[in-house]
Amino acid sequence: MNKTNDPLKMLNNAAKLGLQFVMLRHEDSVLNSISKNRGDIDLYVAASDFRELCKFLNTKSYFEIPGSHVFKNPFSNLVIDVHHGIYKRLPFLTERQLFSNARTILGLKYLSKEILFLVLFLHPLDITGIRGGRSYTEEKLRYLKKNRHLIKSTNIQNLLSQWLGPVCCAFLCRLALYDLKKVISATFIMKIFALCQSTKMRAYFFHRIKSKWTLGFGRKKPLIAVMGVDGSGKTTLIRGIQKFINESVGEGSCKTLYLGSLGGYILPFDTVYKVYKYFSRKTKKNLIQESNFPHHNENMSMPKSKVASFGLGLFLTLEYSVRWIILFWNVHICGRYVLLDRHFFDASRQDVDHKILATIGYFFPNPAILIYLEGSADIFFKRKGEYSPAILNSHQKDTLTVLKRDYPGNLLVIDASNSQDIVLCDCLAELFGSQLVQD
Fold this sequence. Notes:
Layout: H1 7-16, E1 21-23, H2 27-36, E2 38-45, H3 50-59, E3 63-64, E4 70-72, E5 77-83, H4 95-100, E6 102-105, E7 108-111, H5 113-122, H6 138-146, H7 154-164, H8 166-178, H9 182-185, H10 187-197, H11 199-218, E8 223-228, H12 234-249, E9 254-258, H13 269-280, H14 284-290, H15 306-333, E10 337-341, H16 344-348, H17 355-363, E11 369-374, H18 377-384, H19 389-406, E12 411-415, H20 420-432
Parallel strand pairs: 2-5, 8-10, 8-11, 9-10, 11-12
Antiparallel strand pairs: 1-2, 3-4, 4-5, 6-7
């Protein structure tokens, strides 16, 4: 686990290994982000070196959410945004153009002033995208204002004219010289001009629509369940994974749903349980009156009411039906990552004898990945002090035996005896390591 890597030193080491990449930000901007441990470092890597760079970043505890091309260390606020192949927001620039217009500063390659100006100027506009542009950051705005004279360069004007057409080029040049802030608001109009005049623009625009459709409907986010005995660190791990995904992909990209049967209820369980307790046992007085039991038997057990047990089972059925709807909504409608705190498997093992509740279990989707936190029962007992080491160890062995039998291809066993930071890194390495990186 690399908790406090120096990103600049790390990238220098990657360059020394022969990996070809160029920074897509000004050197001062990169140094500023690193010193503040905040923001992002954008770079473009040669297509042939993409996988090797991914593996290298994984060894430094920087992991990627598949498809995002954003690598993040769970203990840092800094992200590394890796572009390769077709530069999505600026597809007109080829790999050859980017690397042939690079200069080396302190061991790392940075773009030449003209190409860097183009990247910082056009990247936020996302001219080939559907949603439109996003505002310039203050840092980018300062750089663009300082270097706005570069828009008069013959090389830049020729490139813009080839990519977007002469009308859009003239419009962009005028706004760059006189009012940079209006560029974003005029993106839609410029996009219309570019689509009418540029064959390249039309080709990339419709390619983006096709890619968006394919990714949106063809790649479902994996359902991840986390299980383990009390004290294994389920809640801590889930919070860490959720924070990592939300900071990498975007706030609200990952939700947590509790599936245990001993808490986290959406419906008013406390009220129902009081009613259950009231009806689940006959009073001792009535029992004595209706039977030949001796009056002095103070420790006799009270028989459960079948009606009360049925009512409790029915309530849990309704509860899990609501949870199923929430799960379906988040996964299939909203396209989010969902982390399950426990799995329906846990609820089905509880002593709740109800056929409808058992049937609900068949309709709950199996997780794509089921993480089980295994470790020393003594360590787990010290963390929470619940049950006993012997009971925890027995439950752990029984559960793992069943999971290995029923979920052999989905099960991921993590050693939870280590510290929570090591457990989180181990888990992220398994979930989002190089073996899951896709081009």
